[in-house]
Amino acid sequence: MSIHRIDCPNILQLQGHPERRVEIDWDGDGTDRFLVRLAMEGSDRRGLFADIASAISATNTNIKSADINADQHGMRGDFVVEVENLAHLNRVLNAIKKVNVQPRMIMWMRA
How many CB atoms are closer than 10 A to CB 23? Predict the structure, then answer.
């Protein structure tokens, strides 16, 4: 399952396929936590893993798991993080982008 923001250009591809769309709601009772898998791509460099982890941690976010691989084409990796709501997730995504890495959300589930 992939999750797209309502303003994501990829959502247009699903307009003719309502069976492939599921509405989600991030509202909870304030104690809910969501696990979100973030796939990332970027240029490899020394200290990149530490910079990504620091950026995520600076948003008061728990990192549940991480896996990054690098080759001559750059780095690709996944982080699973625990967030409270959509605003929290957006803070995490913005922090990661400042490290010059392009994150995208792959899936979420209640923690």
Answer: 5
- On the question of pLDDT at 9 being above 80, the answer is no
Sheet architecture: strand order including 62-71: 62-71, 74-83, 34-42, 101-110
Model confidence over 35-53: pLDDT tens digits?
998 988 888 899 999 999 9
CA dist list (Å): 9 to 13, 35, 92: 8, 24, 21
Q: How far is CA 52 from the centre of its chain?
A: 12
Distance CA 93, CA 75 (A): 17
Pairing state of beta strands 101-110 and 34-42?
Answer: antiparallel
Q: What are phi and psi of 76, to 5 degrees?
A: -135, 140
Distance of CA 55 to the CA centre of its chain: 13
Whole-angstrom distance, CA of residue 15 vs CA of residue 87: 26
Distance of alpha carbon 40 from the chain centroid: 8
